[in-house]
Design brief:
Layout (H helix, E strand, L loop, with lengths): L1 H33 L1 H25 L1 H13 L5 H29 L3 H51 L3 H11 L5 H15 L4 H11 L3 H16 L4 H59 L1
Helix pairs in contact: 1-2, 1-4, 2-3, 2-4, 3-5, 4-5, 5-6, 5-9, 5-10, 6-7, 7-8, 8-9, 9-10
């Protein structure tokens, strides 16, 4: 009986959830068709209010939210607007799942205390899994930045040889390399925005280098910061950094080849050697068994 009720409840919950999503989508579509300016203004007001709340929360609970904020920043959600949209999407997914699980527990669990405990554990697991997912996205993005760094260094070296200043170099690179190195351009956009806001270049370079997980990008920003402090040239520094990045790329390829050869060896030992032993030693083993048996 409980299994039938549970099945119907899950089916009804998923149906209601699907209808809700469809209704929300249709309502948004109709509102945009009838009054696109009003809808965009309301959406902008909601986003601005959320950004203000998120900014106050980061200031008031800096120690508790520091890990989450830094991880979102490393994962590519740089601005407050992007962080708010990411949190909305994550909250929608987990709230939908929590509604289904809560309905299931209300039917199958006899006491409300157990239901509350399970839902609390679900939210705790959701927070932990969200952090793990964001950290995985941050590591994946760091790998993409490392892959883009060699091209970035060569392009910046060419722009520097043209005679551009450091800020002009960054602006020209941001305008010309959006499609070529998208992840590096996100970091360059943040650097330019903070410099335009009045912060010193050295402070911005050091802060961004501290947060970034890409070793190559850290080296680039450290080099630019030192050049800003000492006023030295960057031509030889770009060449040295390009050589270092090439060596790192060669080392990474060698490590991948070594790991791949190890996996191939394990696969051969696990599957091919037993088959070869059976094929080559099978007749001799059968002959010995027949001899001793006879």
């Amino acid at each position: 009986m409980y299994s039938d009720i549970t099945f119907y409840w899950l089916g009804g919950s998923m149906l209601v959830l699907g209808l809700s999503v469809v209704c929300i989508y249709l309502a948004l579509t109709l509102n945009q068709a009838r009054a696109p300016s009003t809808g965009s203004v309301q959406k902008e007001k909601i986003l601005q209010t959320s950004q203000k709340w998120w900014g106050r929360s980061k200031q008031q609970h800096q120690s508790q939210l520091s890990d989450m904020v830094v991880t979102m920043r490393q994962a590519g959600y740089i601005s407050s607007r992007q962080q708010i949209m990411c949190l909305f999407k994550i909250a929608f997914v987990w709230m939908s799942l929590a509604m289904v699980v809560f309905g299931q527990l209300v039917i199958t669990t006899p006491t409300f205390g157990d239901t509350f405990l399970y839902v609390t554990l679900l939210f705790a697991a959701g927070f932990w899994l969200t952090l793990r997912w964001l950290k995985a996205q941050a590591r994946k993005r760091a790998k993409k930045i490392d892959e883009e760094m060699l091209v970035s260094v060569h392009l910046m070296a060419i722009l520097w040889q043209v005679g551009l200043s450091l800020e002009s170099l960054l602006r020209a690179y941001y305008n010309e390399a959006k499609d070529l190195t998208p992840e590096v351009n996100k970091e360059i956009a943040l650097i330019l925005a903070r410099i335009d806001a009045g912060q010193s270049r050295e402070t911005v370079f050091n802060d961004v280098a501290t947060i970034s997980l890409s070793v190559g990008f850290q080296d680039l920003l450290t080099m630019m910061s030192q050049a800003g402090d000492t006023g030295g040239g960057l031509r030889s520094s770009f060449q040295s950094l390009a050589k270092i990045l090439q060596e790192r790329k060669r080392t990474d390829l060698q490590e991948k080849v070594t790991k791949m050869s190890g996996k191939i060896s394990v696969t051969m030992m696990a599957f091919m050697f037993p088959a070869l032993f059976i094929v080559l030693g099978g007749p001799a083993a059968l002959a010995l068994i027949a001899a001793f048996g006879g």
